[in-house]
Amino acid sequence: MTSKKELTLAYSLIIIFFIIGVLSYAAFPAKSPDKPVRLMFKGVAGKVLFSHKLHTNDAGCSDCHHNLEEDETSPEACGSCHEPEMEDEDVPSRTDAFHSQCIGCHQENEAGPQEKECSLCHVM
Amino acid sequence: MQNRQFIVSHAPFWHNGSKISSRSYNTVIAAIPALLLGFFHYGSPVVGVLALSISSAMIWELIMNLITRRPLTIGDGNAALTGTVFAMLLPATSPWWLVITGTFFAVVIGKQIFGGIGSNAFNPVVVAVAILMVSWKDFFDFNEALLNYDFEFIAAYPLAELKHFGTSAITSFDTVDLLMGKQTGGMGATFGLGIIIGGIYLIIRGIIRWEIPVSFLAGVFITALLFNISDPLKYANPVFHICTGYTLIGAFFLATEDSSSPVNFVPMLACGAFAGVMTVLIRNIGIYVDGVIYSILIMNLICPIIDKIRPKALGKVV
Question: Scanning every residue of chain A, which has its alpha carbon at the shortest distance from the alpha carbon of B42?
Fold first, then answer.
């Protein structure tokens, strides 16, 4: 059995923490930063963790965001054109676009990994 | 050695004033250092998750008390403790519904349907996290959950790095940094030193017994050491296993839960060591990134049988 004092404390804790919890979720909703820090690409072959920040240190925006206009500073997300399944043959599907972009640049800069080492990027 | 004699007098007795609520709230106090570092790393979302977790756990207990028409037990602080420890294991970015669903699994499925405090066969928090990990595993993928945080330390979840990319990927993790909480993970589970300080406080106050955490950590250390000796290129060193994932919080806060852990000396050592061994087995040869949750669940399962190993009764009753 619990005493009346303990019950009063418990009721107070419920009310206080519930209000703090609801207010925190309402006041600080989860939002993505304007410039991504890291991205998780998901596909049937597993997830690929991509450090956007690390790559922007070495490469310019237009090295990957290929349709960037001259003074444009806020490129579109890759997925807005490259959908998982594409009917348009001129626009590669999301997986194909990432594969050619990532592998092409990594090979060019000899940044590894070698061919057929899928598990060095893809994680199931 | 002089034998101490205990004299039991007849009634009336005087209660020494110890309460379940003081045990619960003291355990919450012991969790504060680890949670403070979580707040420092992840900011305001920690407050939201923690507050919602504590309040919703207490509300679930209150609802169950009312439905089952049993005395109100929220005053004992056990639900608040369940909410606190559950929040410590979550990523700071957990959505509100995950927190509320989790505390439902912990308090209702993990504890109340067995009959409330002291009757639960499994640690309620571990039951809840195990169910959530199976149901929504992406929320417990700390690499994915914490994508938007720009840390001053390595942002990859250490155990995931080890699992997916081998020991070569973990050479950049420094042991002192790991112990000081410079790693990603549950919002109250990464600050190893803080958890150890909290654990020692609990041991000194007599709330948890030293046998379970010490044997758990010894089990992890020795098993990981054997794996490491057998193939250092494939298996991580034992100190890495102790400083990462849920190992330390599992040793001090999860495995020691009152009703789901043994009470006798030898069983406490055996169960703790068993859970430690299982943790490393799951991590090294199982498919899961971290094995603490499932190993403690299995430990809870075998506890009643192992607890049959009892000391010899003193004297003989005629």
Answer: A30
Q: Does residue A80 share a domain with residue A117?
A: yes
Q: At what angle do helices B96-104 and B78-89 cross, to 10 degrees?
A: 130
Contact status, residue B258 vs residue B118, Cβ threshold 8 Å: yes
Q: Are residues A10 and A64 in the same domain?
A: no
Domain count, chain A: 2
- The confidence score (pLDDT) of residue B2 equals 57
Do A92 and A47 lie in a common domain? yes
Question: Is the confidence at residue B317, as pLDDT, over 70?
Answer: no
pLDDT in tens, A48-62: 888 888 888 877 777
Of A10, A21, A25, the CB nearest to B75: A10
Contact B58 A40 (CB under 8 A): no
| Closest CB from A1, A24, A123 relative to B51 | A24
* A16: amino acid identity, one letter: I
Residues of chain B above pLDDT 70, percent: 98
The per-residue b/e assignment along B296-305, b for 16 or more CB within 10 angstroms, e otherwise, is bbbbbeebee
**Confidence band of B79 (pLDDT split at 50, 70, 90):** very high
Distance CA B222, CA A3 (A): 46
pTM for the model stands at: 0.91
Distance from CA of A85 to the nearest CA of B (A): 23
CB within 8 Å: A123 and B48: no
Q: State the pLDDT at residue A60.
A: 78
ipTM exceeding cut-off 0.90 for this assembly: no
**Nearest CA to B258 among B59, B104, B11, B78?**
B78
Q: Which residues of B touch A49 (CB under 8 A)?
A: 143-144, 156
**CATH for B20-306, among 3.30.1330, 2.40.10, 1.10.3430, 3.40.50?**
1.10.3430
Among the ranges A21-35, A86-100, B78-92, which has the highest mean pLDDT value? B78-92
Q: Among B47, B53, B184, which would you mutate to test the A interface (most chain A Cβ atoms within 10 Å of its Cβ)? A: B47
Largest CA distance in chain A: 73
Say yes or no: A26 and A43 in one domain.
Answer: no
